[in-house]
Every structure is written in structure tokens, then in C-alpha cells.
């Protein structure tokens, strides 16, 4: 028996024969707990790390994995969008609200404004037979079912992308815009009577135009980043077509349509001002493996340029026609003729195009800005 073997101490399982015979072995411990800490395995000893069955430390994602998405809560709900961007959206909403008041004050609350719009209203008789064949189907699209289906499409686009709060915003936008139009038209605003022939009741803003614009803007807010420019251009075209069709059918005056577009601009800008983290686009550092948006500019820049040129050109035509019609009304220009009515009518249609192009351009720019992809650090308020 080896005299060097101490009683009560057994050699570790798997020890070499040299260890059993009393000679030191390269390692006398079968297992070793590696310390963890700031300095690593060779630094100061910290608490031992727990190793899972898969071989990765508990509480850490495996290499190459992704953390499950979590809904923003508390203060994180509003992170990621600069305050100045939110303030810009608020200013756009305030300007839209002020624009509604100005349009009503100029074209409804004054005798000159009413006469100018009466010229435009009567000018719609020119070529109405042919134009109505196109305008009637456009107006026929606007219905309760259209509002429901369009709103559901916008909500579905948000839900598919897991933008829960954005879906609520789309619903509130459509409902709020159309409710605002009806309240303004039937309760808040009135149409003064200056002459015995001016017996028309207030028709500002246009309900048909509000429906078309609100559904289009709801889709603009909820679709992915790459699709927004195309939704903006087609939405603007459809809204303008609906508004002009109401002029062709003598359902509304130009100011009614412009005011309806401004109502939707107000609600759309307000939605952009209240953008949550949930409504932002995924960025390069996002925890979720999603496709990153297109390079800067590209389709958004082109669509904004098209809307800007269309809006500027149409606004120029509208202002020229307004000035020409105003001189006829006050007697300082050419006497009244059927040509004056046609000029007023064309100017009103141009005004509709200008208001629609500018409004959709602003909303596209705001939505792309507030939804700009940001890193995880910036979304958590660290940057």
C-alpha cells in the first residue's frame, strides 16, 4: 500500500495512474467553473455563469438569433421622432384648420366670394353632357361600402405589418375627417344670404371629396415605405377627380372641395404629429430581420416633385382666373359674359388640383419623415 495516500481523500474520477501513485498530475480537478466578470476568465473572479443545456449563457440570445419584438410601453411609445418634426406636423395641421376658415370667409361669408363661385357653378354647364359621362362613374364609387372597404384595407395593411396603434390611427383619421366635415357643414358654418336669389344652404365642405381623400390618406399612412409615394400620387389623382366631378355635376362649388381637402390634411398632419414608435419603419439596427427601405430620394423625391409642379402650376392658373373673375364681379374689368363663367369654372377646377397636390405632397413628406428608420439606440432614447 502506498504510504503517501492520505485517508479520507479519494482521487478524482478519471485521475491518472501517476496521481494514484502519489505523483502530481497535470490537473487534479475534473471540472472547473470559469469565473465571469469584466476582466474575463483571467481577471477578478466574479459569480459563476449559468450554462444552459444548449451551451449558451442564460438570458443571452444565441449567436445569430433575434430578440422577439416587444410592444412599446410607457415613455418608449413616443421615442424616435424628433420634437421639431412633430412640431412641424402640428404647424401643418394648424395651417390646414386656418385655411378652412379663410376659404369660408372669402368665398362664403362675402357677397363677392359668393358671386365668383356662382360664376364657376354656372360655368359647369359648358360641356357638361360629355364630361358627366366620365364624372358620374367617379362619383358613383363614393359610398358607404367604399368607406368601409377602404378603411378596412388601410387597417389590414397596418395589422399585417404588426402596427397595432397605426391601425387605430387610420380608423380615427377616416372617422374624424368625415365627422368633422358633417359637423362643419350642418352645424358650425352658415351661408349668409345677400340677395334674394342666393337661397342656397351651406355646402362647405364636400362630403364626397372628404371620403375619397380620407381613405387615400389612411392608406398612405399604413402601407410600407416603398409603396407610400405611389399611394400618394394615385390618391391625389383620385381625390382631385372626385372633387372636379362634383363641380361637373354641380353638386358643389370649388370652395367646398378645397375645404374638404384641408379637413383631411388637418387629420393627416395630426396623425403624423402623434406618430408612435409602433408606426416607424424598421431600420438597419432594428431587432427584427426585415427588409430595409429604399435609398434616399428615388420614388419619393420624384412623386414630391410631380406633386409640387402640379400644385404650383394649378395654383397659378387658379389665381389668374380668380383675379379675372373678381374684376368682372366688381365692374372694374370686362363686362359679364359666358366666357367669364368658363374662366371661373376652370379656375375653380385648377384650385382643386392645387389644393389636392399640395396636401398630398405635404402628407407624404411628413409621413416619410416621422417614419424614418432609426437605430434601436435612438428609439430607446439613448441617441
UniProtKB/TrEMBL annotation:
Residues 1-76 are annotated as: Disordered. InterPro entries: PAP2/HPO, PAP2/HPO_sf. The chain crosses the membrane at residues 87-107, 138-157, 164-184, 204-223, 230-251, 257-279, 300-322, 342-366. Residues 11-39, 53-75 have a biased composition (Low complexity). It holds the Pfam family PAP2. The keyword DNA repair does not apply. Keywords: Membrane, Transmembrane, Transmembrane helix. Residues 165-272 form the Phosphatidic acid phosphatase type 2/haloperoxidase domain. This is Phosphatase PAP2 family protein. It comes from Sanguibacter biliveldensis.
